[in-house]
Specification:
It is a single chain. The protein is of the alpha/beta class. Helix content is 49%, strand content 17%. It has a single domain, classed as 2-enoyl-CoA Hydratase, Chain A, domain 1. The chain contains eleven helices and ten strands. α1 links the parallel β2 and β3. α1 packs parallel to α3. It comes from Penstemon davidsonii. Pfam families: ECH_1.
Length: 246
């Protein structure tokens, strides 16, 4: 479901092939796999660490695994069971967002394919985003499928997208946002012509930031204070960090 590679103080988390055609849909198994990898990253973090998240195939992530929820409903012969499983996945995914927002190092998403719904939230949970400038789009599909947005999704969008009109287009038009448009919205930092260039750019940002050898604890606390609304909904509390040499 995902792999973790360590290159010195740089970590590379890769969403790998799965049973839903490399869409990397977020189900309990993938969510658990991502969280396990992030726990390992956190346990090995040093000042100067950085993390890149990337994916195989033409999707970064296509959001929650609705087929999984439907299969649970079929298993129990109940539409309610399917809905309850979707609610369960929404709750589980809170942990992924919380893990990224509290990780003691800079994070970069290398978006080499479509990022939709919870998959877009996964990308936006990173500090920086590099994206391919081909046919890939970012897309909040909830309006099109008839689902409201979880409160922490909206809080993350408010924290990351500064323009009210951009937030409106993203969630009330269900706009399929190109890489160039996402740069204008402030979601994406840079666009590149190929997947290889996206990954190289993400590596460059991570390596550049890692060279600063900032305190990971200070970095995490400053990030949390930058996004107080979503961190509050996720139960993340800010803690005071003081210089080690006074």
């Amino acid at each position: 479901m995902c792999t973790l590679e360590k290159r010195g103080s740089l970590f590379i988390l890769t969403l790998t092939g799965d049973t839903n055609k490399d869409q990397h849909r977020l189900n309990p198994t993938l969510i658990s796999s991502i969280r396990s990898a992030l726990a390992e990253v956190k346990s090995q973090a040093v000042n100067g660490s950085a993390l890149i998240t990337l994916s195989q195939g033409r999707f970064f992530s296509n959001g929650f695994d609705l087929n999984h929820a439907q299969s649970v409903g079929v298993k129990y012969g109940s539409v309610k069971a399917a809905k309850d499983e979707l609610v369960h996945m929404v709750d589980l995914f809170k942990g992924v967002v919380a893990d990224y927002l509290s990780l003691p190092m800079p994070t970069v998403a290398a978006v080499t394919g479509h990022a939709a719904a919870a998959g877009l939230m996964l990308a936006m949970s990173h500090d920086y985003v590099a994206m391919i400038s081909s046919k890939a789009v970012m897309y909040m599909s909830e309006l099109d499928i008839g689902m409201s947005l979880p409160d922490y999704f909206m809080a993350l969008i408010r924290g990351k997208v500064g323009s009210a009109s951009s937030r409106r287009d993203l969630v009330l038009r269900a706009a399929k946002v190109t890489a160039e448009e996402a740069v204008g919205m402030g979601i994406v930092d840079s666009t590149h012509g190929s997947a290889e260039e996206v990954v190289a750019a993400a590596l460059g940002v991570a390596e550049e930031l890692g060279k600063r050898k900032w305190s990971g604890d200070a970095y995490a606390e400053i990030r949390k204070s930058l996004y107080p609304e979503v961190c509050g909904l996720l139960g993340l509390k800010c803690e005071e960090v003081m210089p080690s040499k006074l």
